[in-house]
Amino acid sequence: MLVRHPDAPDWGLGQVQSKIGDRVTVNFENAGKQVIDGSRIGLLPVFE
Predict the structure, then answer these.
(1) Distances, alpha carbon 20 to alpha carbons 5, 9, 23, 29, in Å
(2) Other residues' Cβ atoms within 10 Å of the Cβ of residue 16
(3) How far apart are CA 24 and CA 35, in angstroms?
(4) Does residue 11 sit within a domain?
(5) In degrees rounded to 5, what are phi and psi of residue 4?
(6) For 1-44, how does the pLDDT look when each residue is reduced to its tens digit (9 = 90+)?
(7) 22, 25, 26, 47: which is deepest, by most CB within 10 A?
(8) Is residue 27 part of a domain?
(9) Would residue 48 count as lying in a domain?
C-alpha cells in the first residue's frame, strides 16, 4: 500500500512494509524506513 505522512510531506511517497499492532513500518522516498505509531498518526492512503 502507498501512503503519505500528513505531518511530513517532504518525506514523499511511502510504501508500507509491515503492520504489527499499531506499529507500521513504511519505506519513504526521501526519509527511508520509518516506524510509525498508527494509533497517533493517520497515514494518508495514495491511490495513484
Answers:
(1) 18, 24, 5, 22
(2) 15
(3) 6
(4) yes
(5) -130, 150
(6) 999 999 999 999 999 999 999 999 999 999 999 999 999 999 99
(7) 26
(8) yes
(9) no
